[in-house]
Specification:
By secondary structure, the chain is α/β, with parallel strands linked by helices. Helices cover 40% and strands 21% of the residues. It contains 14 helices and 13 strands. Strand 11, helix 12 (300-315) and strand 12 (319-326) form a beta-alpha-beta unit. The longest helix is centred in the first third of the chain and has 20 residues, at 51-70.
Length: 373
């Protein structure tokens, strides 16, 4: 048995709101970033389109073809080494075909497909789900007039067991738990195509588990509760800050993943490893700490504290600024981007006012108690 690190909610340049550039370079950077985080498998789940997976396949095949043509030549060893690195990156991370669909009345669902049916997915999204041009633009604003259950029933009919459904960020905006109620919510959570529920806050997981003991939500098989990043390529954010670990005795692919989610496979969420990750990250580093309550607005005293900390940060090797945020609404939707904006706004007041590079890492699984380094 082996533990695999997976992220089943990842966006690519095919999503209109992706922030990590476009073209082959952006896909290489995306895969390299996930490989650096020791992620074994991701699902590309762009908004209302499978184009991200199709682009990935095209870039992967081109890289491998060029590498095969070049390895027999003696000239340009640097180019051959670069091409080999790209090919190894494509081989390192298993990529599955997925889509995050906006369905009536505006909630999101994720479908993950077997490679054997990929050629049928765009037709399904455009003509059966009714997403029109969104199948090429990756625009989440286009909402199908079908309910989630109607979409899943049609997918069952068309794909004959070659897909499964994840309910993403269920407790957040456009999540099935938050924005559905009554019988529509019960019908969706009971649907046998739904194999996993993605939560953000560990408290939500416990609330949903308790509610699902109610008879109207009774299922023949229990869910797997997972975490995933909903990564959109923001330069200040590392991928897979939320992820899942799945234990399997088989090589990880669509079939073995589906079987693990649908059966007795062991799945653990990243919230179970947060303290371990934080301790490992901080080991051997000097720390500065600052706490925010309710808001990230800063007065003159807080501004002075932050300026002194930033000065110390950029002048001290292996130094980390640790931010503890409690009930801070600015980060509810924007996460690390809000922290990055705060830091960038302060750097222009430093002496000299030079911008400096920094990375932000998240160590929390709750909207109300957040930690960034």
């Amino acid at each position: 048995m082996k533990d695999y690190k997976i992220d089943l909610h990842v966006h690519s340049p095919a999503s209109i709101d992706y922030k990590g550039g476009s073209g082959p370079k952006a896909f290489k950077e995306l895969l390299s970033a996930y490989a650096e985080q020791s992620v074994d498998l991701i699902a590309l789940t762009d908004h209302n389109t499978i184009q991200g997976y199709l682009d990935y396949c095209r870039h992967r095949d081109q890289a491998m073809q060029v590498y095969e043509l070049m390895i027999g030549r003696e000239e340009s060893p640097e180019l051959v080494a670069q091409l080999r690195s790209e090919v190894e990156c494509y081989k390192r991370v298993v990529v599955l075909a997925g889509v995050e669909i906006s369905v009536y009345p505006g909630i999101h669902i994720i479908l993950v497909f077997s490679e054997s049916v990929v050629d049928m997915v765009t037709h399904f999204l455009r003509d059966f789900v009714g997403l029109g041009d969104a199948v090429t633009t990756g625009d989440p604003a286009k909402v199908s007039q079908l309910s989630a259950v109607a979409v899943l029933d049609k997918a069952k009919e068309l794909f004959e067991g070659k897909f499964f459904c994840i309910l993403p960020h269920v407790e957040s905006a456009k999540g099935a738990w938050k924005d559905l109620s009554g019988q529509p919510r019960a019908d969706l959570f009971k649907h046998d195509s739904v194999l996993a529920v993605q939560f953000v806050n560990p408290d939500t997981r416990e609330c949903v588990k308790k509610a699902l003991n109610n008879g109207e939500y009774k299922r023949t098989k229990p869910f797997k509760y997972i975490q995933a990043s909903d990564y959109h390529g923001a330069p200040s954010v590392r991928p897979a800050q939320q992820y899942s670990i799945i234990r399997s005795g088989l090589p990880l692919n669509w079939e073995s993943l589906r079987d693990a989610l649908d059966g007795n496979g062991e799945v653990r969420a990243s919230c179970e490893f947060v303290e371990q990750r934080l301790e490992k990250f901080l080991k051997g580093k000097r720390q500065l700490q600052l706490e925010f309550q309710n808001t990230m607005a800063i007065n003159e005293d807080r501004r002075s504290d932050l300026m002194r900390m930033l000065s110390a940060l950029i002048n001290t090797p292996s130094c980390v600024l640790r931010l503890n945020l409690f009930n801070t609404v600015e980060t509810k939707e924007r996460g690390s981007d809000a922290i990055a904006d705060l830091i960038k706004g302060l750097t222009i007041e430093l002496d000299p006012p030079d911008l400096f590079e920094f990375e932000i890492t998240q160590f929390h699984d709750s909207d109300t108690r957040q930690r960034f380094c």
